[in-house]
Amino acid sequence: MGKIMELIEKLNDNIIWGLPMVVLMVGTGIFLLFVTRGVVFRRFGTVMKYTLCTLFKKKQGNDMDEGEITPFQAVCTALAATVGTGNIVGVALAIATGGPGAVFWMWVSALVGMVVKYCEVTLSVAYRSINDMGEIVGGPMYYIKKGLGMKRLAVLFAVFGALASFGIGATVQANSLSAGINASFNISARAIGIIVAVLAGMVFIGGIKRIANVTEVLVPFMAMFYIVGALVVLAFNITDIPSAFVSIFRSAFTGTAATGGFLGATVMYSCRVGMAKGVFTHEAGMGSAPIAHASASTDHPARQGLWGAFEVFFDSIVMCTVTALVILTSELWHADPIMNEGTISSQAFNQAFSGGEYIVTIGLALFAFATIIAWHYYGAKCVEYIFKGNKTAKTLYQMAYVVLVYVGCVAKIDTVWELADLFNGLMAFPNLIALTALSPVIYRLTRDLFSDPHTIRPKNKSYDDMLIIRE
Fold first, then answer.
1. Residue 27 covered by a domain
2. Do the domain assignments include residue 146?
3. Do 241 and 247 meet the contact criterion of CB atoms below 8 Å apart?
4. For residue 371, which of 430, 315, 301 has the smallest C-alpha distance?
């Protein structure tokens, strides 16, 4: 067993989350950038107008739109899965190993990710279906099957997604949540496990609508809670912010010299670390978020794709930058002896004001719980696809997921981390194949939505003739 785990660890470090994945992801993103004519950036103001500027509208869409939840609820559900430990611990780890320059490469990864997620969300809505219970469902497994006619590849993606949900969604997140609360508030892991498992189970029972209702409130609250706390820290360190930006850009192209407990990093290593952590944080290309976006009430696939681009912008440009500045202005990233990534974030907040560490603890707990419920939905839809809607399979999956949430809270799960990373990364390969092969559909849908040079076109449901159907 030890040799198998050693092999998986090497596979994760060198391929799944190493340079090959970064090259594949960035290469696909650049290809799709040309396919879409860079519209996400050329028309960035339009993208923000139809996403950020509509957040406070009570009703998004109209009665003629297909879907079960609003576009905002869909993006909140997707953000619940992506806004998490990667935004706090992941950023700290990137800086601690790759230096300040890693932040720049995380930004580059995010820009590529905005294009990729726009495309995968667009395809997810374009090829969504209605299941036996009358629910609207979608995701990579559906556009792989219907668009490419590759049923086995679609099932393979769903298998990877279901297995990944047990790791990255249930046990890993529950473990992070439990460890943080236990360390800060000395509450027993068993008590935490019971409470989290019960709360999660109550949310799961209500399906996508209840999950969306919870994330619609939880995601904005937890994001604002963390951002406001971070801004308070930055207010104390305001004179150091310019030098932090200078170090990010300088280190990105010159490397980072050894200092304190930091061993130094070359430009190539900084790039590799930043890009890899960026992909891990925003999950663009993994194919998970499109499963949630497919349920959105929208008349046009590319219209929901705009929310996909916004999701990556908020997750990896806004949230990660705030965390990075807090860490860099604290100067703790190269302390001697160097701290672990979790401690760096906590102490960076605590250095500014007493009790600041609790912002990180509470933030991580909220982020982890949100990820637990969002990934349950992803896994459940993958199981539904594999077993063709079998209710027994879905019930068994739900029960197993709740049990693993409890197990994650009370057990040491170092092995699960490696397996979670493996299956989460494997999801990307069939998804990226589909994005490349279906790029003509993405092009036609994008051209249709942005046909007007000043806005996006009026609502019109006639986009079926733009699709490729090989089912």
1. yes
2. yes
3. no
4. 315
Closest by CA to 222, choosing from 107, 323, 369, 326, is 369
User: CB-side exposure of 301: number of CA atoms within 13 Å?
Assistant: 31
Domain coverage including residue 213: 10-55+67-456
262: Cα within 13 Å, side-chain hemisphere? 25
The answer to whether the beta carbons of residues 291 and 124 sit under 8 Å apart is yes
| pTM of the predicted model as reported, rounded to 2 decimal places | 0.90
Calpha distance 228→240 (Å, rounded): 18
The verdict on residue 465 lying in a domain is no
The DSSP symbol for 87 reads: I
Cβ-based neighbours of 295, under 8 Å, separated by 6 or more: 67, 68, 69, 74, 128, 135, 136, 137, 138, 208, 212
Instruction: Give the number of domains in the chain.
Output: 1
Each residue's pLDDT tens digit in the chain (471 positions)?
A: 567 777 877 887 777 777 787 788 889 999 999 999 999 999 998 888 888 877 656 455 444 456 667 778 888 888 877 776 777 777 888 888 888 899 999 999 999 999 999 999 999 999 999 888 888 899 999 999 999 999 999 999 999 999 989 988 888 888 888 887 887 788 888 999 999 999 888 888 777 777 878 888 888 888 888 899 899 999 999 999 999 999 999 998 887 876 666 666 778 878 878 887 787 788 888 999 999 999 888 888 999 999 999 999 998 899 889 999 999 998 877 766 666 666 788 888 888 777 778 888 888 888 888 889 889 999 999 999 999 888 899 899 999 999 999 988 887 766 676 777 788 788 999 999 999 999 999 999 999 998 877 777 666 556 777 887 886
Q: How many CA atoms lie within 13 A of 446 on its CB side?
A: 27
Compute the radius of gyration of the chain from its Cα atoms: 21
What CATH number is attached to the domain comprising 111?
1.10.4160
First-last CA distance in the chain: 41
| Bridge partner residues of 81 (DSSP) | none
Q: What is the CB neighbour count within 10 angstroms for residue 348? A: 27
Residues 6+ apart with CB under 8 A from 28: 116, 285, 432, 435, 436
Write the burial class of residue 337 (CB in 10 Å: 0-12 exposed, 13-18 middle, 19+ buried): exposed
Q: What angle do CA 446, 447, 450 make, to 5 degrees?
A: 85
Those residues whose C-beta lies under 8 Å from the C-beta of residue 58, and which sit 6 or more positions away, are: none
Whether residue 426 contacts residue 16, with contact meaning beta carbons closer than 8 Å, is answered with yes
Does a structural domain hold residue 468? no
